[in-house]
Specification:
single chain, alpha+beta, 6-stranded antiparallel sheet, 6-stranded mixed sheet, 6 helices, globular
């Protein structure tokens, strides 16, 4: 059996080593037949081929952004490695971004092209977590993320919270987009104009979350400690801090069945069949082709006018 497969990606040649290595066990792979080329689960080749097919849709969400890489060299049931620093052995054609941290710098990997995405898949990078800012303006986020985290695996509670948050954002004239997390919840994403620092963005997100939780105290909370949530859905805004990351659109999650974090249209919330793990590596590309975020403005908004509207709403 050939343990190396070679693929051309643009001007680069990428090797896939040990393509038949099982990364995802077959148990729990809902509704999926045995893996292509494997009788025991989803292989590294399956992951590689998925990222190759989704690259045209995924790369716009990755370019110019530092990444934290979630690697599972021994499969998703083995040890997990959260990789920030780019190893020296990575090819020199892979883009790096050196960013400041408290006691020095970190050299993050940046995925600007298909070849890099495939190289990372060969490294058993299952999930890509991206910064909310770009390398050119590393301290100025151009995305705001609200993570809707239910107390239990209850997607109806997530739907309700998303609709309430969407209505509040509409009242502030802020466009928003939805993404399943591939786990239990949703991310509500707001494009920003990149003129605010992380502290300002996170403070605004917290004000929005507090406003919503105060209006619906029986269902929603901003309590960071689980013991204080009382079974309510947690409106998490902590991902909006400097050097924090959020799962990138179209990333595979490291759980059986290979669910994918997928952008969805707001109208899809009305479909009772939709939940946080609705899409897998078999179906996510089909969803991508529907362009669910086509209506989201390319240019982000300033927070000043939205903050004034929020103050008026709070009285």
């Amino acid at each position: 059996m050939n343990d190396v497969r070679t693929v051309r990606a643009g001007r680069r040649t990428v090797e896939l080593h040990r393509p038949q290595k099982v990364l995802f066990p077959v148990a729990g792979a809902k509704g999926r037949s045995k893996s292509k080329g494997s009788g025991s689960g989803l292989t590294k080749a399956d992951l590689f081929d998925y990222y190759r097919s989704v690259a045209p849709f995924m790369l716009p969400h990755l370019r110019d952004r530092p990444l934290m890489l979630e690697r599972h060299p021994d499969g998703v049931e083995g040890p997990r490695f959260m990789q920030k620093d780019t190893p020296d052995h990575y090819p020199d054609w892979i883009t790096r971004a050196e960013v400041a941290k408290q006691d020095g710098t970190v050299t993050h990997t940046v995925c600007d092209d298909t070849a890099t995405l495939l190289f990372l898949a060969d490294q058993a990078c299952v999930t890509l977590h991206r910064w909310l800012s770009r390398t050119g303006r590393i301290d100025r986020p151009d995305r705001l993320v609200f993570d809707l985290d239910p107390a239990e695996d209850d997607f109806d509670a997530v739907r309700d919270a998303a609709r309430l948050l969407g209505e509040l954002l509409d009242q502030m004239n802020l466009p928003s987009a939805l993404m399943t997390t591939g786990s239990r919840g949703l991310h509500v994403i707001v494009p920003l104009n990149g003129n605010h620092d992380f502290d300002d963005a996170r403070a605004f997100a917290k004000d929005v979350a507090d406003t919503l939780a105060e209006a619906h105290p029986d269902r929603l909370t901003t309590a960071a400690r689980k013991k204080d949530r009382g079974g309510r859905l947690y409106l998490d805004v902590q991902r909006n801090g400097y050097a924090q990351t959020a799962v990138a659109p179209f990333s595979v999650r490291a759980t059986p069945g290979a669910p994918v974090a997928v952008p969805i249209a707001w109208e899809q919330l009305d479909d009772p069949a939709v939940h946080a793990r609705s899409w897998t590596i078999d179906t996510a590309v089909e969803q991508a082709r529907t362009e669910p975020w086509a209506g989201v403005p390319r240019s982000g908004r300033a927070l000043g006018p939205a903050r004034r509207k929020l103050r008026a709403l709070r009285g």
